[in-house]
Amino acid sequence: MEMSLSENLRQCRIVIRDVEKEETIADTTIIAHDMDRGHIAVEADGFEVAEGVVISALVFSKSGLFETQGTVGARDGNKMGIVLYEGSDKDDRHAVRYQVNITGVVDQITRQGEKISDNFEITVLNMSSIGLLAQAPKGRIKDEDTIRFAAVTKGQRIIITAHVERVEACGDGKEDVGCSVQLVNLG
To answer: Whose CA is closest to 156, among 122, 120, 185?
Structure first.
């Protein structure tokens, strides 16, 4: 899904990744957006990134999750500019994973067509615009389930519906849960 540069992105969460180093460099908020030029400004407290660094970013916009690419611009105090661009020369992977560490509550599981009400905590470790990896208590989620969970991240409520592709034990009474994202509601 392509991000609409005409959408107002102010106050949206953005997770920024250095394309060359393949590492997450910031988890912050968009504080300004020039819709005509495709420029954004983000809160830059607590991290340093050199001007000209090529980035990819996962944006938690009001209409859903979007991955975009850009180049870091000038810094002014606690504000850093980013020039967004489109095109295929972005990153070698189709859907890059971003470290997000979002803790939420699963309130519904659909298993073999039956909806099951539930209430347990899940932590999304990383996600892309199309998938996520989470940790959940052992035995609560099965392969092929569909889960719905809600969380608040950077002051923004997010509800995700995801199809479980795989469940693997990871120790400490937890399981890694790999999912394809079906629906994201933000607001």
So the answer is: 185
Average confidence score pLDDT of the chain: 88
Angle (CA) 6-67-150 rounded to 5° is 95
User: Helix, strand, coil proportions of the chain in percent (round to 5)?
Assistant: 0, 65, 35
Residues 6+ apart with CB under 8 A from 2: 66, 86
Is pTM beyond 0.85 here? no
Give me the sign of the Cα torsion angle 187, 60, 48, 75: negative
What letters, b where the CB count within 10 A reaches 16 and e where it falls short, cover 152-180? ebbebebebbbebeebeeeeeebbebebe
User: Can you give the pLDDT at residue 1?
Assistant: 41
Tokens of 98: 């971003």
Predicted confidence pLDDT, tens digits, the chain (187 residues): 444 555 678 888 999 999 999 899 999 999 998 877 888 999 998 888 999 999 999 988 877 788 889 999 999 989 999 998 763 333 444 678 899 999 999 999 999 999 999 999 999 999 988 899 999 999 999 999 999 999 998 888 999 999 999 999 998 999 999 999 999 888 6
Token pair, residue 5, equals 């540069």
Q: Token digits for 41?
A: 């400004």
Residue type, 98: Y
